[in-house]
Specification:
By secondary structure, this protein is α+β, with helices and mostly antiparallel strands. It is about 35% helix and about 20% strand. It has two domains: about 120 residues, no CATH class; about 100 residues, Sandwich (Immunoglobulin-like), CATH 2.60.40.10. The protein has five helices and nine strands; from the N terminus they run αβααβααβββββββ. The strands form three sheets. It has a four-stranded antiparallel beta sheet with strand order 6-5-8-9, with no helix packed on it. Strands 3-4-7 form a three-stranded antiparallel beta sheet, with no helix packed on it. It has a two-stranded antiparallel ribbon with strand order 1-2.
Length: about 260
């Protein structure tokens, strides 16, 4: 039986190499879909601890490294949506850390660094690689707006609305108050079998509604008491949604509940 806690055997090194490649590949794949590591960065010190356990003859490092790897791989907050400036920040940190490692490595060539220093150096090296891979640009996916078929499929209304409606005379204004971009299919006054396209301020058909953006619903029938808007979220195009709004027209003797 191999004693992996006291010796750096070839199978043990191959296993660490495989785990390292798997983590770096996951960081790169998440960067391509616009997500950045958070708790996933714990894999760098975790792998370094697994490497240092036999070097430093420290059994607790083996358990610590395994625990950090499990957190980095399976924790709910391992990755998060990347902010707009993440590319620049991650690239700067990765380059700075790589430069620091190169300077320290060149200065320590004539020395015999102790095992703990090798553990810290390997953790910093993995962290710099993680930063550099995380700085990759998000993959551009062609945007395809849904069509009329969306209206006749199975639809759901989100638990918390993505849209806000304001009626303004001869038109209505639709605002995206959700967390992501929306792909608009069409709209219709409630109680009518219509199919109209949302418009921008120039009167052109609008398919993509960014976060905080607005679209116009026109022409707007007088005395209208409700509206339906069919759309999907760009991050979940396989889930067709419908926005429903109903109200009581001014001067109506009947009360309509939303």
């Amino acid at each position: 039986m191999l004693d992996t806690l006291t010796t750096l055997s070839v199978p043990y090194l191959l296993a660490l190499f495989g785990l390292t490649v798997q983590w770096l590949l996951a960081v790169w794949q998440q960067a391509r879909v616009g997500r950045r590591p958070v708790l996933a960065y714990l894999a760098a010190p975790g792998l370094a601890a697994l490497l240092g356990a036999p070097l430093a003859q420290a059994d607790p490092l083996f358990g610590l490294g395994g625990a950090l790897l499990l957190i980095a791989a399976y924790a709910g907050g391992a990755y998060a949506p990347a902010p707009a400036d993440h590319h620049r920040q991650a690239l700067t940190r990765g380059r700075a850390l790589s430069l620091l490692l190169a300077v320290v490595g060149a200065a320590g060539q004539s020395l015999a660094p102790p095992a703990p220093l090798w553990v810290l150096w390997s953790a910093a090296l993995l962290l710099s690689l993680g930063y550099l891979l995380s700085s990759g640009r998000q993959l551009k996916v062609p945007v395809t707006a849904p069509g009329l078929a969306l209206r006749f499929g199975a639809l759901t209304s989100p638990a918390w609305p993505d849209l806000e409606l304001r009626v303004e005379g001869d038109h209505a204004r639709l605002q995206n108050i959700g967390p992501s971009r929306l792909l608009l299919a069409g709209w219709s006054p409630s109680g009518q079998n219509g199919w109209l396209r949302p418009q921008d301020t120039q009167g052109k058909a609008l398919s993509v509604l960014p976060k905080g953006g607005t679209a116009l619903l026109a022409p707007w029938p007088a005395g209208q008491s409700g509206v339906r808007v069919w759309y999907v979220r760009q991050q979940a195009p396989q889930e067709p949604l419908v926005f429903r709004a109903d109200w009581t027209p001014v001067g109506s003797p009947q009360r309509v509940l939303n």
